[in-house]
Specification:
The chain has 2 domains: about 140 residues, Alpha-Beta Complex (Aspartate Aminotransferase, domain 1); about 260 residues, 3-Layer(aba) Sandwich (Aspartate Aminotransferase, domain 2), CATH 3.40.640.10. It is about 40% helix and about 15% strand. It contains 14 helices and 17 strands. The chain has a 7-stranded mixed β-sheet with strand order 4-10-9-8-7-5-6, with helices on both faces. The chain is globular. Bound molecules: 4'-deoxy-4'-aminopyridoxal-5'-phosphate.
Length: about 425
């Protein structure tokens, strides 16, 4: 099996996965909400941070902090080295060929905007076409719309079926001589669908078209090997991988990054400045203007170390067992409808309850200490496809337990008692 496209049906068993032991690493999971144990099922929005990452942040702040790249004093050298180490950890995590192919950004949104400004504004022209999918998060739609409006380019959209799978045949039909760029979500945040990105990347490359993958919902569940995928860009955020907010990465192939224009101007991204002319620094620095999120990047490095030590395949196998259990239990509740039933899914369950608004569902579940997300999940085209304004979404992590699925089921039944 190609490690870049690990399916969520790995041979690895979930039986020996000790979620209880893992939970002990996460102080926040001990919280009580109004006297009830916290049942945290909003992991697709942000996952929680283990003590190991918190400790790493504390160690950095208490013994290693200074600004980087700018001084010869001890702390600056240590901070510079630790920031570089974090880049190397991320390089290893996604199996990039070179560390300079990893750009630290403020998150997935920032990474995508970097590609839009750096690549799109330089290379996309009037009449060109950009292919996106119905499953995209708004952060992989709006920047491209802004570009299309500025340039007179056109967005073409891959449709989905009623299970929430992309219609790959239709994707292939969208290619023509005007196609210049493809943006693809790896895993849908609204539905959990895992897209066949390897096939879709290969198809785009047969037409000589670069592909950006939004991996915000993938890198915590699927082994990412950017060389095997051969994607041109890959983006994700630390806060969905048990890391801090305010940092993410953009992986880009070195030659492409070198060909691009900078996104933000300022300190550190320059080789020399006069009022007549600025010469830009080499990658990755060309794309990291100003003081970067040093502490957060170092915390991100610790977070991927933590996940890698558990093993992404083991995490995936365990989460699949939670998904299967939760799907079965929710399907048994009359009036509950699961939105998004693709064969390949991460542990995300979007659902509606007949006659009850998702916001009310979230509010009543919260009274039981259960955290789910309600709304359009920044994926309004997905909601439009299913003809719903919003859904409730339970998204599981490897520290969730079957008893928490049971708590969700009991909570949903309670919601129905309150409103029906
Ligand atoms: N893409 C997807 C698929 C997401 O789920 C999210 C976060 N909800 C984003 C992009 C944006 O990530 P961030 O807010 O960390 O920039």
């Amino acid at each position: 099996m190609n490690s870049a496209i690990v399916s969520l049906k790995p041979e690895i068993s979930a039986d020996d996965f000790d979620a209880e032991k893992i939970r002990a690493d996460f102080p926040i999971l001990k919280l009580k909400i109004d006297g009830k144990p916290l049942v945290y099922l909003d992991n697709a929005a942000s996952s929680q941070m283990p003590q190991q990452v918190i400790d790493r942040l504390v160690r950095y702040q208490t013994t290693q902090h200074a600004n980087i790249n700018r001084a010869v004093h001890y702390l600056s050298e240590v901070a510079t080295m630790e920031y570089h180490n974090a880049r190397c950890k991320l390089q290893q995590f996604v199996n990039a060929r070179e560390d300079r192919e990893i750009i630290f950004t403020s998150g997935t949104t920032d990474s995508i905007n970097l590609v839009m400004h750096g690549y799109g504004r330089k290379f996309i022209k009037a009449g060109d076409e950009i292919i996106l999918t119905t499953l995209e998060h708004h952060s992989n739609i709006v920047p491209w719309q802004m570009l299309a409006n500025e340039k007179g380019a056109k967005i073409r959209v891959v449709p989905i079926n009623d299970k929430g799978d992309l219609e790959v045949d239709e994707y292939e039909k969208l290619f023509n001589e005007r196609t210049k760029f493809v943006g693809l979500i790896h895993v849908s945040n609204a539905l959990g669908t895992i897209n066949p990105i390897k096939h879709m990347i290969d198809f785009a490359h047969q037409h000589g078209i670069p592909v950006l993958i939004d991996g915000a919902q993938a890198a915590q569940h699927i082994i990412i090997d950017v060389q095997a995928l051969d994607c041109d860009f890959y983006a994700f955020s630390a806060h969905k991988l048990c890391g801090p907010t305010g940092v993410g990465i953009l992986y880009g192939k070195a030659a492409l990054l070198e060909s691009m224009q900078p996104f933000k101007g300022g300190g550190d991204m320059i080789a020399s400045v006069t009022f007549e002319e600025t010469l830009y620094n080499t990658i990755p620095h060309k794309f990291e203007a100003g003081t970067p999120p040093i502490a957060a990047a170092i915390g991100f490095g610790a977070a991927v170390d933590y996940l890698a030590a558990i093993g992404i395949e083991r995490i995936a196998a365990y989460e699949l067992s939670l998904l299967n259990y939760a799907t079965e239990r929710l399907n048994d509740i009359p009036g509950v409808k699961i939105i998004g039933t693709a064969a390949e899914k991460t542990a995300v369950i979007s659902f509606t309850i007949d006659g009850i608004h998702p916001h009310d569902i979230g509010t009543i579940l919260n009274q039981d200490g259960i955290a789910v997300r309600t709304g359009h999940h920044c994926a309004q085209p997905v909601m439009q496809h299913f003809n719903v304004p919003a859904t409730s979404r339970a998204s599981f992590a490897f520290y969730n337990k079957k008893t928490e699925v049971d708590a969700l089921v009991a909570g949903i039944k309670n919601v129905q008692k309150v409103f029906l």
